[in-house]
Amino acid sequence: MSGLEGLGAQDEIRERRSDLENSEDERRRSKIAHLKKKAINASNKFTHSLKKRGKRKIDYRVPSVSIEDVRDVKEESAVHELRQRLLDKDLLPPRHDDYHTLLRFLKAREFNIERTIQMWEEMLNWRKEYGTDTILEDFEFEELEDVLQYYPQGYHGVDKEGRPVYIERLGKAHPSRLMRITTIDRYLKYHVQEFEKALLEKFPACSIAAKRQICSTTTILDVQGLGMKNFTRTAANLVAAMAKIDNNYYPETLHRMFVVNAGPGFKKMLWPAAQKFLDPKTISKIQVLEPKFLCKLLEVIDSSQLPDFLGGSCTCAADGGCLRSNKGPWNDPEIMKLVNNAEATFVRQITRIVNDQQKLDSYIQIRPLKGRGSDTMTVESGSDVDDPCSPTGQRSSSFPRLDPVHEEARASDPNSYYSCDDHFGLVDEATGYDQEVGHTQGQSLNDMGNSSSVKISNSGGIS
N or C: which end of the chain has fewer CB within 10 A? Predict the structure, then answer.
């Protein structure tokens, strides 16, 4: 009997111990489940607050879009070094804290950091003296319609890679008549104002439409009929002044230039004279085409995006001609709502290239289109594909549809644009567990992993 009682006592001890272990396991699982639920609830509350805040400003939820951004590893390293140096010298205003802006200046000075800093500081001083930061609001070029009669020029459409196309018909320019309508100083202000519109409106709009980073233009100069009568001292002064502004303060915004309808006279006399105003790097981007080679333009620009006087099929008859239409993604209302709305966001897919060929890595980041976020928290994925308030299902446009994606972020500073501070890695332990990210809709996101957390950083990026 005593032996049986001993065995019963041991069984009871083992049962109690088993019950205790099971209880601890249940508490551990319950705690993990509680943490997950708490994180998801916080994320849902954050997303819901974004919707409510957005509805106070606009009547629908603004979708996000994906932007492909391919970077060279060595260039990226130089950009981050330059950025840190500028921050140390207090020479990096938020509105210029942009990866691709810094890269343009580095390229202009062949990646010499000291020379780039000097160029950058001169640019900031010029902008302050010239009033460039407020020129979109402060300056009105009332004489534009008259100026276009004697200097036909303007943006029209995009090339096959999504860059804006800028066209000038120099052969129809009349400098002497132009100066009766305006002055060199006023025209230069207009020239700067158009550059600012390109940086703040046209390039972002083209990036959204093309779903890839756009930072430069394709330019066409039509020199048919151009002669010495067009190349007066006034014209030379104007060209020299514009070239100085372009080279010093808006470097590396030209992807390529076509000088078309160039006859023997232009090649022998005018082209050598014009090259005196251009730096060698710009000259290397210029291709001079005789009239019989005008069809070369169709290799880089679709016929529907090219005016008929340049061999395309577009006339813009309803708008008074192609150079008065301002045709492009920047005139698409849905795209411009994204560009101008402080709460619009985009997913940047960054691909780093080593030695021009080998891909090092690829990951996504959510960046505000304008402005920075201020809070740090984990965001739960949530699709707006089925959102009846989203305009993506209602859009009718000749430009590519904007693919909605899952994540959203609040933007606060309307003056900043495409922050450079986007070198954060993917966060694995934002809430103590791996958060599974749902499938995205954009093709550019298909290669991404589906078990990474998303975190909004203090500097506004989501890594």
Answer: N
pTM confidence score: 0.69
Instruction: Tell me if residue 345 falls in helix, strand or coil.
Output: strand
315 assigned to some structural domain: yes
For the sheet with 345-354, list strands across it.
65-72, 345-354, 358-368
Same domain? For 323 and 368 the reply is no
Structure tokens at 232: 């007066």
Is 289 a member of any domain? yes
Q: pLDDT tens digits for 2-47?
A: 554 555 556 566 666 666 666 666 666 666 666 666 656 655 555 5
Assess contact for 254 and 282: CB atoms under 8 A: yes
The reply to whether 338 falls in a domain is no
Backbone dihedral angles phi then psi of residue 153, each to the nearest 5 degrees: -165, 160
Residue 107 lies in a domain: no
Place of tokens 């020239």: 191
Contact 79, 397 (CB under 8 A): no
Query: By residue range, what is the domain housing residue 317?
Result: 131-331
* pLDDT one-digit tens code per residue, 159-172: 999 999 999 999 89
